[in-house]
Amino acid sequence: MNQSFDTNRPPYGIIAVLMIGAFIAFLNNTLLNxxxxxxxxxxxxxxxxxxxxxxGFMLVSGILVPVSAFLIQKYSVRRLFLVAMGLFTVxxxxxxxxxxxxxxxxxxxxxxxxxxxxxxxxMNVMLVSFPVEKRGTAMGFFGLIMxxxxxxxxxxxxxxxxxxxxxxxxxxxxxxxxxxxFIGFFLLKDKxxxxxxxxxxxxxxxxxxxxxxxxxxxxxxGNLGWQSPVVFAPIIIGGLSLVTFIRxxxxxxxxxxxxxxxxxxxxxxxxxISMVISMxxxxxxxxFPIYVQTLRGISPFDAGxxxxxxxxxxxxxxxxxxxxxxxFGGRILAITGLTLITVTSYMFxxxxxxxxxxxxxxxxxxxxxxxSMVFMPVSTNGLNQLPKRFYPHGTAMNNTMxxxxxxIGTALLITVMSIRTQTHATNLGATTSPGxxxxxxxxxxxxxxxxxxxxxxxxxxxxxxxxxxxxxVLAMFIKRAKPAEDPIEEVEVNKELNPKLAEx
Length: 504
Prior knowledge:
Layout: H1 12-43, H2 47-50, H3 52-74, H4 77-96, H5 101-129, H6 132-164, H7 168-187, H8 201-224, H9 229-251, H10 265-295, H11 300-328, H12 331-348, H13 357-372, H14 375-384, H15 391-431, H16 441-475, H17 487-497, H18 499-503
Helix pairs in contact: 1-4, 1-5, 1-6, 1-7, 1-10, 3-5, 3-8, 3-15, 4-5, 4-7, 5-15, 6-11, 6-14, 8-9, 8-15, 10-14, 10-15, 10-16, 11-13, 12-13, 12-16, 15-16
């Protein structure tokens, strides 16, 4: 039995508390991106290793989010919120005091275990609370809150990292997280009837090995190369486990994650587009700070200022795009947004060491503007086609696919960057005349590696161009979705109206 609310009077108090918690989780993620170069320097790790702070976060989310559909159906909003914020808070304290990189990674993954529950929970409450014709506007304001974190995150992060060090990012968030936990403890009062659901442990094992194996394999490729058994063995095992998991879910009467939602075409299309864009977006969030700070030497604070206009634009446009979605549907928004993303990604694939600060700010802002027109409208349109009983499964599947595709995309593009950097370094070294003696060979070598890394980043961005162009083609098939008829829900309604049917 799903948690239900009266759509004539949505539970604004519950939604507000959930949004505050989600805002803190989003803020923490955006704070960390600017700090990656500083963390690389302190712990003496490479880009392929530091990416685990992002990929590891997505790895845990990819394992736990599928379980959220079961949790949402079984437990109350209050109980799930307190568990989620509790885990997030513990992870924040752990990461803030980490003295070695593995401990920092464990803290991030503990944070992820809380966020993995929190985001599907909030999305499900939003879907149940608002009718279809008002959902775009509601999701738009939800986007305003969620995009407010990226708006202030990079600049705040730059200021904290530059003046107090990267640990302050976690010390700053931890007391706020504690406060939000107690707000939820005292204000959330919803109750839930006892639901007779049991978690299928075999399904949980298959899901964990499946999604976890895929994420681990792809994420290890940046360090070890695709030919390593540590890379291809987890991918093969994960793929086989995932196939077995899907077949098991299709046979169960009450599956942990219901794959029948993919029989609804608009939902399947929206999930596909979101996955492709997640691959491009998450990878860009790592590549861009490396270029700006490592290659260009721009300070963390100035790097944050560079990203702020784009994030503010994305936040402001969220409610506007929500209203446009209610009026015109998702197709025109998605096509426009994906066109902007494709063009700006191509511009980012032609970066130089002399590209101006204002040019970078403008391109990043236009890219964020395009992102604001894609994610929320596309996912809302897909979820709108699902019958009500599939909402927990739809939101869980969306979050799972985005986390998995984001991790795969990040690993893929970081691998492209690493491999192409080595190739360009070899080629640039070969073009240097062997008889020429340079006054400062160390400086010349550093300059060569900078040029090689620049070309590697450009090549990685070029891959994201093809990804966003593919999503653009898919967006042309979007149609405005309406809730599909559900025979099971119709039978339940008829039983309520006619008790004699229930006896039979």
